[in-house]
């Protein structure tokens, strides 16, 4: 297992390139099995999660060729035979459950191990299952499996009790070839959903309104192969924005879409960071006297829960009191106890964290408890006095392409080592 060692205190400078989005590419890989033709994903991020979902698909006889030199993924699902995927891999990554909708749509039945994922909350799948049932599938859960089958899926009106990203995507994939029209109301509005719809439409689907709270899916008879480049990763961009802020540095970030970063830009600006957008690039200047801020995570376009840990790390270094409220996941403050080992002053009260900024964080051995918590600890290490070792870095590798190389390119004193 790897760890990352950071010697803090260096200012960052220069430019960094953002990869395409993990949360776009995973549902897109799942969706590519809908047609049986070949699909190509260009500029794909070479991430652990991408390798895991590819391995899950290989267990059901999908051929996947990942070329890490050209960042191209070729998916050929013409030979899928098995209508069951039971694997430790499915338990390892919650996004594996995204193949369920596509498989029911194409084959009318599928049986899958119940998903696992980051340890940030209970993360049920009831909304996904309600959606499949509304489309006419018979769904059962038992013995660690979910099973769904339907002679024919029929479009319906589906209201989501909560705008779940995964449920919106899974239902969209299940509905693309259903008979008639499906409407998803209170759908998640994340940009990655719009990107998935763009991919599906280029396969021949008829989806209108993705990216808004109401999505209409008019069923089509069949889909064909396509080629697609996913959108930039707004969370990776936000993480590098926070790296500039926490080290009070000025850097340029290439590969951003301002529209997708609005809540992060708003909050960092409120804290006193200076941000200038130039097309698909941003110059971010954190070399300022920063102010404490309050943050509440919300479904998009609210402040993303996936940026909460990183901003918490930043606010540990900003004098004054900041309050963070997490409304999406119930167990997403695991970074707090690790940050305390670095001298942070954080008190957790239910779904809120009260942070008092300290003069300096101090290097320590800390553990990445989940993906974004791990990234946040690396950021804290950049600002801390002395050496920080972040262990269990495999969590970070799930969602960041070469995080230490990108930070080193900006001048950070950082390296990867074996544990
Ligand atoms: C996706 C993202 C993840 C991000 C999250 C919230 C991917 C691969 N992952 O995860 O990075 O943190 O959105 O922005 O895109 N819920 C239910 N029942 C369900 C489904 C969800 O109660 O059937 C609840 C969850 O427990 C959670 C909330 O809804 O409290 C949000 O989950 P959801 O939007 O589904 O997140 P994911 O799709 O798992």
Question: How would you characterize this protein structure?
Answer:
- This protein is α/β, with parallel strands linked by helices.
- It contains 14 helices and 24 strands.
- The strands form six sheets. The chain has a four-stranded mixed β-sheet, with helices on one face. The chain has a four-stranded mixed β-sheet with strand order 2-15-17-16, with helices on one face.
- The radius of gyration is 21 Å and the shape is globular.
- Bound molecules: uridine-diphosphate-N-acetylglucosamine.
- Uridine-diphosphate-N-acetylglucosamine binds next to helix 1, helix 5 and helix 6.
- Its EC number is 2.5.1.7.
Structural class: alpha/beta
- Largest sheet properties: 4 strands, mixed
Taking pLDDT < 50 over at least 5 consecutive residues as the criterion, the unreliable ranges are none
> How would you state the average pLDDT, rounded?
95
Shape: globular
Relative helix content: 25-40%
- Gap between N and C termini, in Å? 6 Å
Small-molecule binders here are: uridine-diphosphate-N-acetylglucosamine
How do the strands and helices of this protein lay out in sequence?
Blueprint: E1 2-7, E2 15-17, H1 22-31, E3 38-41, H2 48-58, E4 63-67, E5 72-76, E6 84-85, H3 88-92, H4 99-107, E7 109-113, H5 126-134, E8 138-142, E9 145-149, E10 157-159, H6 165-175, E11 181-185, H7 191-202, E12 206-208, E13 214-218, E14 227-228, H8 234-246, E15 250-254, H9 262-270, E16 274-278, E17 281-285, E18 295-296, H10 308-315, E19 321-325, H11 334-341, E20 345-349, E21 352-356, E22 365-367, H12 371-383, E23 387-391, H13 394-397, H14 403-409, E24 413-418
Parallel strand pairs: 2-15, 3-14, 6-7, 10-11, 18-19, 22-23
Antiparallel strand pairs: 1-23, 1-24, 3-5, 4-5, 7-9, 8-9, 11-13, 12-13, 15-17, 16-17, 19-21, 20-21
């Amino acid at each position: 297992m790897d760890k990352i060692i950071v010697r803090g205190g260096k200012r960052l400078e220069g430019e960094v390139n953002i990869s395409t989005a993990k949360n776009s590419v995973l549902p897109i890989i799942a969706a590519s099995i809908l047609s049986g033709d070949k699909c190509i994903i260009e500029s794909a991020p070479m991430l652990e999660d991408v390798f895991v979902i590819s391995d899950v698909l290989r267990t059901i006889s999908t051929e996947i060729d990942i070329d890490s030199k050209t960042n191209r993924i070729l998916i050929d699902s013409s030979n899928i035979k098995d209508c069951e995927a039971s694997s430790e891999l499915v338990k390892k990554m919650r996004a594996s459950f995204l193949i369920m909708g596509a498989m029911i749509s194409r084959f009318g039945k599928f049986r899958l191990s119940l998903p696992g994922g980051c340890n940030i909350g209970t993360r049920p799948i009831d909304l996904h299952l309600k959606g499949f049932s509304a489309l006419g599938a018979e769904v059962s859960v038992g013995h660690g499996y979910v099973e769904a089958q339907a002679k024919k899926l029929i479009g319906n009106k589906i209201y989501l009790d909560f705008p779940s990203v995964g449920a919106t995507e899974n239902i969209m994939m299940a509905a693309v070839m259903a008979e008639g029209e499906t409407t998803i109301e209170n759908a998640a509005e994340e940009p990655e959903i719009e990107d998935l719809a763009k991919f599906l439409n280029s396969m021949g689907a008829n989806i209108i309104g993705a990216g808004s709270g109401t999505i209409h899916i008019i069923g089509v008879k069949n889909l064909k192969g396509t080629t697609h480049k996913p959108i930039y990763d707004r969370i990776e961009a936000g993480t590098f924005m926070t790296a500039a802020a926490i080290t009070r540095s000025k850097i340029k970030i290439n590969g951003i879409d301002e529209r997708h970063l609005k809540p992060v830009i708003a909050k960092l600006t409120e804290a006193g960071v200076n941000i200038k957008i130039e097309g698909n690039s941003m110059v971010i200047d954190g070399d300022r006297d920063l102010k404490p801020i309050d943050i509440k995570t919300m479904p998009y376009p609210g402040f993303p829960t996936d940026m909460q840990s990183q901003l918490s790390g930043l606010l540990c270094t900003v004098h004054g009191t900041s309050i963070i409220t997490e409304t999406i996941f119930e167990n997403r403050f695991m970074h707090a106890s690790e940050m305390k080992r670095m001298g942070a002053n954080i008190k957790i009260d239910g779904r809120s964290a009260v942070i008092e900024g300290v003069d300096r964080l101090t290097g320590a051995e800390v553990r990445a408890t989940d993906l974004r918590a791990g990234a946040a600890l690396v950021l804290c290490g950049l600002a801390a006095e002395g050496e920080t070792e972040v262990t269990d870095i495999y969590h970070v590798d799930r969602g960041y392409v070469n995080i230490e190389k990108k930070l080193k390119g900006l001048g950070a004193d950082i390296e990867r080592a074996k544990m």
